[in-house]
Amino acid sequence: MNTNGNAQIAIVTGASRGIGAAVARRLAKEGFAVAINYASSSAEADALAAEITSAGGRALAVKADVSNAGDVRRMFETVEQQLGKVDVLVNNAGVLKTMPLADTSDALYDQTFDINVRGTFNTLREAAARLNNGGRIVNFSSTVLALKLPGYAIYSATKAAVEAFTQVFAKELRGRNITVNAVAPGPIATALFFDGKTEEQIETFAKMPPLQRLGQPDDIASVVAFLAGPDAGWVNGQILRANGGIA
Ligand code: NAP
């Protein structure tokens, strides 16, 4: 609830499946009205909005390619018109294709930076003008940045940029009572993780954390709910590595 006693409004980018969908479900359960952003998976986003609405929550599926500044501006306008002014922004949309740096095409480099970095930049810039004071921003990094894994050079570089945005933007929003943090998941059982991996590779990743399993989208949704909720009010400019203990 905000100071007027109304439900708070959250935008979750890339919420049609995977971690973003789990975050949207969790925030709706916590009483947020949730904007479910997607770029192309309209059926999944609509189904999630219907699921949340039929459970008594408020949700809206909003199409916007986060790498396109005009789309992002229109997404905020639509959400403001249909749900209200935004309190929480979760920058979850992201892509990964593992590839040795030497084999990476210009197109793959551009696509990864456009969605992971420019996408986060676009929503942060829009949020600076539009987010309610007292709001929360949660960005998405990845534990692979710290692991320095071969094949992840481009992806890790995009997440390094997101971590830099997080730490600097937290300071730039001084005086607004808005926190900016990032969560850096380890391997999570989603399409992004499974795509292109052999059973053997999946097993290797599952054994990496001392907790000896893959993370589930809900493991990250609860971290995001913490960062978006009242208990994290004094946590700002931090990268929370939620990865079952991989180091
Ligand atoms: P996922 O299952 O592939 O889902 C990605 C979501 O992003 C989808 O809803 C997709 O919707 C959306 N999306 C992609 N491009 C978009 C764009 N240009 N504009 C708007 N939405 C877009 O991925 P995930 O595993 O849940 O990953 C979520 C985040 O966690 C990413 O930032 C990822 O880097 C990070 N992460 C994941 C893991 C992991 O192991 N899974 C680990 C560390 C960090 P459309 O189909 O409509 O495009």
Automatic annotation (TrEMBL):
InterPro entries linked: KR_dom, NAD(P)-bd_dom_sf, Sc_DH/Rdtase_CS, SDR_fam
Domain Ketoreductase: 8-191
Alphabetical UniProt keywords: Oxidoreductase
SMART domains: PKS_KR (SM00822)
Gene3D superfamilies (UniProt xref): NAD(P)-binding Rossmann-like Domain
Homology family: Belongs to the short-chain dehydrogenases/reductases (SDR) family.
Coiled-coil ranges per UniProt: none
Annotated PROSITE patterns: ADH_SHORT (PS00061)
Name the record gives this protein: 3-ketoacyl-ACP reductase
